Amino acid sequence: MSIVRNASAIAKGMSITLKEMFQPTEVENYPDGKGPMRGAKFQERFRGKHQLQRDENGLEKCVACYLCAAACPSNCIYIEAADNTAEKRISSSERFAKVYNIDYNRCIFCGYCVEACPTDAITHGHGFELASLNATTLVMRKEDLLVPAPHLPDAVESDRDTAEVLA
Q1: Domains of the chain
Q2: 68 in a known ligand binding site
Q3: Position 54 pLDDT exceeds 90
Q4: Is 76 a known ligand-binding residue?
């Protein structure tokens, strides 16, 4: 009795396998075919390449508090702080991150840095194509992580000229 039951279970499994084996396969021609960079939607919680955000005036949100670097379990964030001057405003705070590097050789995309940031300066974007044969290209500098400055209205542009914001 158990032999018949086992044989029927095997036959049922093999019938599913044979039926699927002869179905046409769908192959995506990556990277030329459709994909995330060509219209696919990401979930809001997707943890991709980090982004350093700017405020509504185009100034950097990062105040160089080092909380993201302290929260990082893989120790992949390196920050050097500098003070803002009256002639050159980089952020709205007293300090800004002169150097902000993330080493993607070590990053585990845990999101602790995003959660620790009090100003919401660092977020996860949707970039995911970070593979490289050269390990030095996986160390992203501040210039690589900063979102582009928004185009501002003329009234804000005049304030911006006096404050001189670095891109």
Answers
A1: 46-163 (3.30.70.3270)
A2: yes
A3: yes
A4: no
